[in-house]
Every structure is written in C-alpha cells, then in structure tokens.
Write a structure and sequence with these properties.
Length: about 190
C-alpha cells in the first residue's frame, strides 16, 4: 500500500518497491477544478484550470541541467519523458505524468525536483482532488502519494524531490507553496530546497 506523505517527509522509494531494483518511476499529477455556481446558485458549471507538472534536474552545485515540461516533453539525454499538457484536469486518474528512467539518469544529476503551477493563474483554492504520486513503472505499484489539495492563494507548489542517496532512490515531499505561472518563475524557490 502506498505511503500517504506529509509535508517534509522523506522515504526510500527503493524500499517501498520491495527492495528490488527500481529502474523506472512515474510521477503522476491529478486535479479537478471546483465547480462554480451559476446565477442565483443555479447551474453549477466547470471552470477550466490548466495545472502544469514539470521537473527540473539539478547537479551537485545546484545548477539546473535540464527541464521537462509541456514545452520540452523529453529530457536532452532521453531519460525523462512528459506525457503532454492537460489543460483542464478533466477525466479520471493522472492528468499529467512524468516518466523517469532511473537507470538512464546521468551520474552528474544530484536531484530531480517536481513542481506544479497554475498556468491559467487560478490559485489552489479553486482546485480540488489534487495529488501527486509515484508509481513503480515496472510493477505498476503506487509507492507514495502526496495530497496537494490545500486551500490558499498560491499558484504553484514545489511538490517533491527524487534523489539517489547511498545507492537508494529516495523521495522528499516538499509541499512548499509559492507562486509562478511557469517553472521558470519558481527557480529561486527550487534552488533554495535542493
């Protein structure tokens, strides 16, 4: 059963995968827009909220090496792939996914930071059922889940960091609220937690 992460919690993804060799993970992001009430409270309607999942790869010196997002769906080395942009949050399950082939991530990489931002500018008080989760892509087992549905005026969040430590892949649920329409606006906040 997946671990429901709390802000700041760190876990070993390798151990959660059963101690086997963890070679590929999927970071899934899901969300729904809260329904808005129509005239005199009648006829609730869906609004469209475009959340974007992105990840930035950093080296030991906290330098960004690459970014994977809706504008660049594959990392330069091919080890990380984005599923594409979902602009509404409609549908069940993960709305966007980022697949990381851990066995192909270059040794120079110290950490992979996953972030989410509201491209359309709505804040997180207008979003519900938001989560990120990590799945072992080989077995399909969900390893960890982090609830992102926290009300607030923020438009972005530093979700989680995945990193290699003493031969084990680990995850740190960061959960820091921030602002920014794209991952580029969030770079100072990211470098502060690497």
């Amino acid at each position: 059963m997946a671990i429901n992460l709390q802000k700041g919690q760190k876990i070993s993804l390798t151990k959660e995968a059963g101690g086997s060799t963890l070679t590929k993970i999927v970071m899934g992001l899901g969300w729904d827009a809260k329904k808005t009430k129509g005239f005199f409270g009648m006829g609730a309607k869906d609004q469209e909220i475009d959340l974007d999942a992105s990840c930035v790869v950093f080296d030991e010196a906290k330098n960004p090496l690459d970014a994977i997002y809706f504008g660049q769906l594959v990392s330069k080395d091919g080890s990380i792939k984005h599923s594409g942009d979902n602009r509404t949050g409609a549908g069940d399950g993960d709305d966007e996914q980022i697949v990381v082939d851990l066995s192909s991530v270059p040794a120079v990489v110290k950490s992979i930071l996953f972030v989410v931002n509201s491209f359309t500018g709505q804040n997180f008080s207008q979003i519900e059922n938001a989560y990120c989760r990590v799945v072992d892509a080989t077995s399909g087992k969900e390893l960890a889940r982090y609830n992102l549905s926290c009300t607030g005026e923020h438009t972005a969040m530093l979700m989680a960091k995945v990193y290699l430590h003493s031969g084990e892949w680990k995850m740190h649920a960061i959960g820091d609220n921030t602002s920014g329409k794209t991952f580029q606006h969030m770079m100072p906040a990211m470098q502060a937690v690497i």
